[in-house]
């Protein structure tokens, strides 16, 4: 079986985790061994870096430091988890990947998308998603969903303006990459979103 790499993107609270679990069941039924990853995270080194990045006490963290830490966490995730899984023919579903850096650091922090992809070239080792689903949701709605959950981390605590830039950034990125990024209305019911996602995956699996 050929490996397949799917990434789930979108603002905080958009429903990525929810859809990943549903997609995992679907791919299992198709006969795939599925690996779910989260970025930053997924192994001991990247989880330790995640703790540093999201620590609310580090209010002094520079934007370039933030970008490099996300890239460092991703480098380990690719090397230790994603690359071996794809080589073994597994399906990898990633909760966020390099597009998150493009949007949060590139657009949100203003570092520029080109800078972000240039820095991440070292981390990715040529591994790019076959398909990306953008869970598209207005910033206010995502934040409201998160507030019902745990305490907000360093990124989630950012201003509403920042999160609005993130949402707009994702929409622009989807327009720039129409062949790879599928924008899905994340305000729809969970089951309807799942049906949309699987219809695209089905098409990908059936391609010649
Ligand atoms: N389609 C949906 N409609 C309404 N609420 C949803 C939907 N999908 C997920 N949720 C809820 O929104 C919250 C955030 O979902 P989650 O999957 O954790 O998002 P993310 O991983 O993008 O942060 C959870 O409480 C979840 O149950
Ligand atoms: C992967 C990545 C995440 N982030 C941000 C997005 C999230 O606010 C946070 C990761 O938190 P996470 O809990 O994984 O996201 P969510 O709240 O959507 O479930 O880090 C970046 O700023 N750049 C990146 O490259």
From TrEMBL:
EC number: 2.7.4.9
Catalytic activity: dTMP + ATP = dTDP + ADP
A single Gene Ontology CC term: cytosol
Residues where ATP binds: 10-17
Record-level GO BP terms: dTDP biosynthetic process; dTTP biosynthetic process; dUDP biosynthetic process
Pfam families given in the database record: Thymidylate_kin
InterPro entries for the chain: P-loop_NTPase, Thymidylate_kin-like_dom, Thymidylate_kinase
Domain of life: Bacteria
Thymidylate kinase-like domain boundaries: 9-196
Record flagged with keyword Transport: no
Gene Ontology molecular-function annotations: ATP binding; dTMP kinase activity
Keywords: ATP-binding, Kinase, Nucleotide biosynthesis, Nucleotide-binding, Transferase
Family: Belongs to the thymidylate kinase family.
Role of this protein: Phosphorylation of dTMP to form dTDP in both de novo and salvage pathways of dTTP synthesis.
Protein name as annotated: Thymidylate kinase
Organism: Coprococcus hominis (ex Liu et al. 2022)
Taxonomic lineage of the native organism: Bacteria, Bacillati, Bacillota, Clostridia, Lachnospirales
Gene that this polypeptide is encoded by: tmk
